[in-house]
Amino acid sequence: MSEETSIDIDYVATLARIELTDEEREQFSSQLEDILDYFERIKAVDVAGIEPTAHAFPIYNVWEEDVPEPGLSPDEALLNAPEQRGNQIVVPKVVEDA
Amino acid sequence: MKDYEAVIGLEVHVQLKCDTKMFTRAAYRFGEPPNTLTNPVVMGLPGTLPVLNKRAIELSIQTGLMFGCHIAEVCKWDRKNYFYPDQPKNYQISQFDQPICIGGVVEIELPGPARNVMGEHREVKLTRIHLEEDVGKLTHYENGSLVDFNRAGTPLIEIVSEPDLFSAEEAAAFLNAIRLNMIYAGLSDCDMEKGQMRCDANVSVRPVGSEKLGIRTEMKNLNSISGVRDSVNYEIRRQSKVLEKGGEIFQETRRWNAEQGYTVALRSKEEAHDYRYFPDPDLMPVRVSREWVDCLHAKLPERPFDRQRRYLKDFGLPFTMASVLCQNSELGNFFEEAVTKCNKPLEIGNLVANDLLRELSAGKDAESQGLVLLPIKSGHVAELVKLVEEGVISRQIAQDIFPQMFQTGESPSTIVEKKGLRQTTDMAEIEGVCARIIAENPKPVGEFRAGNEKAINALKGGVMKATRGKANPAMVDKLLRKLLA
Amino acid sequence: MSDLYYQSAAELARLLEKGEISARQLMQSVIDRTHSVEEKIHAFLRFDPDEALVEAEKSDQRRAAGKSLGSLDGIPIGLKDLICVSGQGLTCGSRILENYVSPYDATCAARLKERGAILWGRLNMDEFAMGSSTENSAFQTTCNPWNTECIPGGSSGGSTAAVAAGETIAALGSDTGGSIRQPASLCGVVGLKPSYGLVSRYGLAAFASSLDQIGPITRTVEDSALILQAIAGHDARDSTSFKAHIPDYQAALKAPPRRWKLGLPREYFAEGLDPEIRQAVEKAVDFYKNEGCEIVEISLPHTELALPVYYILAPAEASSNLARYDGVRYTHRSERAEDHVDLYFKSRGEGFGQEVKRRIILGAYVLSSGYYDAYYLRAQKIRTLIRNDFMDAFKKVDALITPVSPTAAFKIGERLDDPLSMYLSDIYTLSINLAGLPAISVPCGFTSKKLPVGVQIIGQPFKEAEMLSIANLYDSTHRFGMEHPEL
Ligand SMILES: [Mg+2]
Ligand SMILES: [Zn+2]
After folding, report:
1. Min CA distance, C80 vs chain B (Å)?
2. pLDDT band at A5 (very low <50, low <70, confident <90, very high)
3. Inter-axis angle of helices B427-440 and B455-466, nearest 10
4. Do C125 and C251 have their domain in common?
5. Nearest chain B alpha carbon to C86
6. Is 60 exceeded by the pLDDT of residue C1?
7. Residue C394 lies in a domain
8. Which of B62, C344, C441, C472 is deepest in the core (most CB within 10 A)?
9. Residues of C noted as catalytic
10. Which has the closest alpha carbon to B236: B217, B255, B220?
11. How far is the CA of B200 from the centre of ligand 2 (A)?
């Protein structure tokens, strides 16, 4: 395993908001490092002057006019809500202050 | 003790005047019951995809043109990834490295030394303007927080200034100028109470004379202009004090407590921001042609400060009047139309800036109604001024009939004729009334004769009242003096 | 008449049209077959025979009233469980969506409904389409009908197994790196991935947005054309949907055969290809030669980079696409959460399976600060090179012929602990997604162990009609997809 392909699994899991068990953390670390090693081969390619492809067939100016269309009723919108109150989604209190 | 100077950069979020959301055609309005303005895309349901709102793009381009930005030939869409309960997809579609508008300046007007004296004007540099989607709204109760997604996905532009503001007063002026221009051009209503304009302020201080920027703090979601002014002032004082005592400023986000007037550092559990921006694969780029830009440009009004300059110079209006007339593009148009029909800018300015605005604000929804929809016509205002100039009616009568013109849209001459308000210039008739008033009011007569010049006003008033305002005031003055001599 | 459940959709459409069978009769046949074999196959996550029969009766009534909705009216079609149908569940093979009900129809589902197709059941898949064996489903492992100890391929393994086992007449799957073609090949059925943008993705729960396409899984190429006809075409709800003219695909099949110029990319016949697979594919190539087609060896020099590029781009997009499954609005919510941040960690930790977590973490990593340029941006640039390889090849040939999967179906559990070897299953399919091309997997025989083998025909962008015509030249004379496993 090369030095540069080490992965800070806790940092990335935090970014991705995924709780990992100790087992998963260990298993993923080694698997992901194998995968990153495998990725090393892309570094040998000369990509100077090559445009990145974001879309296989880019087209421009796909849009709609600013005209409202019917949407969901609150009941439909909250059909699958884990917890609701007065047509709003309930989440644990979001507190930001010290 | 060292002197410190502040360096401020602002990021201003402004909701665009659209009927639907940025990436889907769910309706948007302010103040609707919770979660009534959603659809599967707004809720971020599995399988949903974004589709651009063309009008939002046009309004963004027009915003850029108002501020002299370079409009990008091609712009694209990126995802800003972060988790928050008010954000349905846990990424915000925004523009990262290819925003729609680049550079530009906002001309600001600082307060003058007195209300009727214009303050300094200065151009503040912009970094960019990009287009993105708004988030939903969180409210808190004792045991939790509630999420309403009505606002989620609303078209929002972010106007990012360079660190090119140097006082809280300038920051406030910057916001005022953005508001003025955007409302003026019909791009946004910028109602800060409705959250249609919000501001993040980056503030740092440095010793006067230093070139290097200090460490900055960021205050997020300031929702009033006074909030920006007060929080920036507080932060400048706080940072200066810390540095004076040899302390250190930390790069952090601080919240402005508007009720108690201080800022406090946010202690959040979240990691350093790593938004993992990447191009949104669900959206195609936008290509903006020269012709499109020209066409959008042609639809924009003259910029308000340009117009104000013109009114001061070409029409010789006093600053306060020019400033009032340039708050609203339709008001200015109305004024100028009237002036082309009667070249008396000061008199017309007076009627428009005072009488017309008074009537407008008396009516309930008047402001949103738009002047063109009102019955009153610019030609009638011009005609009214002409009637005064030609001595057909007095100034007083002109003011008296203005509300009726405003309400009914009738021409002033029609009203004057109908009500028989034509000014009397019949010398004999007026002289008779003057003689009667002199006879009935010995007290002011005595005072005037004793040398109290002002006492004649009471007599004039009496004559005007007796003639129901129809007597020519100059003639009344002349006749009274003749009879009293 | 042989069993209805094993007829092709095209044949059934003829029988329905002539009034020789009723839609109800057909539906009942499929339901009975499903009841009798499903416990060996585990292809379905859910199905509702009563509702299906009601729909079948409506179809019969329409037909009786002379208001038939066309050749799909009354044909049962199964949907992979990541395509939304209003009022129905949608799990994406994941615990995190276990109780989710969609309030809207995917565009492709709506188009099938409009044409009278009976949406028959929800088919198993690897969780969020991440996998090549359908073992990553949170609910069950689907078995290959040709050998129930083997995997059916994936991620659309439920769809391909159901078609192969006669539990549905056809199905829709989704293909991000081979997820229609590889399981089609392993189950001995026809699987088509359209050009990127031909079929609307609206209502398809996204895995990797720039690669995902919905496509038909059928027993014949003719059926593939029939269903593609129904679902292809521009959709204003999908900004990446292409405004292409949609030709008459079935008519294209009937056009007189041409002497196609077909390319064999040498990189696809190199090391790692199972000799039995090679043999079967080469036999198909010989057939084309005998039909007068010109076979040209060509090179796609960047082929070996496709796998790393794919496994950078797809997880990156997925890490963002799957962020919405968070425990807030509609997914599983952890009961252990102490605050709103914790809610995310625990809900996602509990709701996602291993492979999904692995790919989200990989994707978040390649996008994270300091790594974006080295991985994501570089991968996008190499994607350009891979695409250019194909475009260069199409200057010389009409289409390409390759294997679909380097091996036939492998044993359940065999590759579970080695993600990288699992990822190699898609080595011949994922370049096509990177380039946005259409490709079809057509059954071309069996291994000595009687496991199906498929041949892949790769077409030019939006030239599905030509590609189908080439595929049909072979399929109409071989019909390996009409052979049936013993169950
Ligand atoms: Mg910002
Ligand atoms: Zn912003």
Report:
1. 13
2. low
3. 120
4. yes
5. B40
6. no
7. no
8. C441
9. 80, 155, 179
10. B217
11. 9
B234 near B243, Cβ under 8 Å? no
Which of C382, C409, C424 represents a domain boundary (last residue)?
Answer: C382
Nearest CB to B284; choose among A14, A55, A86: A55
Asked whether residue C163 is assigned to any structural domain, the reply reads yes
Nearest to C387 among A20, A45, A53 (CB): A53
- Residues of chain A in contact with residue B143, where contact means CB-CB under 8 angstroms, are 93
Query: Which CATH fold would you assign to the domain B427-484?
Result: Arc Repressor Mutant, subunit A (1.10.10)
User: N- to C-terminal Cα distance for chain C?
Assistant: 20
Q: Does C239 touch chain B (CB under 8 A)?
A: yes
C79 at B interface, C-beta within 8 A = no
pLDDT at A3: 46
| Structure-derived torsion over alpha carbons of residues B181, B187, B189, B191, reported in degrees to the nearest 10 | -70
Name which of B47, B89, B281 is nearest C84 (Cβ-Cβ): B47
For residue C344, give the nearest of B50, B83, B276 by CB distance: B83
Tokens of B331: 């008001």
Chain-chain contact of B39 with A98 (C-beta, under 8 angstroms) = no
**Which is it for strands B197-207 and B155-161: parallel, antiparallel or unpaired?**
unpaired
Instruction: Give the H/E segment covering residue C214.
Output: strand C213-218
Among residues C312, A51, C378, the alpha carbon closest in space to that of B285 is found at: A51
Domains in chain C: how many in total? 2
Q: Which helix (H) or strand (E) holds B130?
A: strand B121-133
Strand order in the sheet with C261-265: C44-46, C118-123, C76-80, C170-175, C213-218, C190-193, C439-446, C452-458, C399-403, C261-265, C294-298
Q: Which residues of B93-125 are buried (b: 16+ CB within 10 A; e: fewer)?
A: bbbbebbbbbebbbbbbeeeeeeeebeeebebe
SS3 A15: helix
Q: How confident is the model at residue A2 (pLDDT cuts 50, 70, 90)?
A: very low
Print the domain residue range for C221.
Answer: 4-258+478-482
Q: Where are the domains of chain B?
A: 4-292, 301-419, 427-484
Shortest CA gap A23–chain B (Å)? 23
Tokens of B221: 């979601």
Q: Render B451-480 in DSSP notation, one character per residue.
A: T-TTHHHHHHHHHHHHTTT-B-HHHHHHHH
pLDDT tens-digit readout, B129-158? 999 999 999 999 988 999 999 999 999 999
**The pTM is what?**
0.93
Residue finishing a domain among C361, C382, C403: C382
Contact A66 B138 (CB under 8 A): no
Which tens digit of pLDDT belongs to each residue from C369-402? 999 999 999 999 999 999 999 999 999 999 999 9
Kindly state whether residues C321 and C233 are assigned to the same domain: no
| Digit-coded pLDDT (tens) for A82-95 | 999 999 999 999 87
Same domain, yes or no, for C204 and C75? yes
The pLDDT score that the predictor gives to residue C417 is 81
Tell me: do C330 and C225 sit in the same domain.
Answer: no
- Token match 């003025």: residue? B180
Question: Of the candidates C458, C1, C469, which has an alpha carbon nearest to the alpha carbon of residue C221?
Answer: C469
A61 touches chain B (CB under 8 A): yes
Domain shared by C161 and C235, yes or no: yes
Question: Which numbered ligand comes closest to the C-alpha of B130?
Answer: 2
Ordered structural domains, chain A, with CATH = 3-43 (1.10.20)
Residue C466 lies in a domain: no
Angle at C357 between CA C356 and CA C363, to 5 degrees: 90
Q: Within its chain, how far is the Cα of B338 from the centroid? A: 23
- Confirm or reject contact between C261 and chain B (CB < 8 A): no
Question: How many angstroms separate the alpha carbon of residue B158 from the centre of ligand 2?
Answer: 5
Question: Is the same domain home to C311 and C247?
Answer: no
- Do C215 and C328 fall into the same domain? no
Dihedral sign of CA atoms C346, C352, C358, C361 in order: negative
B298 C-alpha to ligand 1 centroid (Å):
30
Does residue C400 belong to any structural domain of this protein?
no
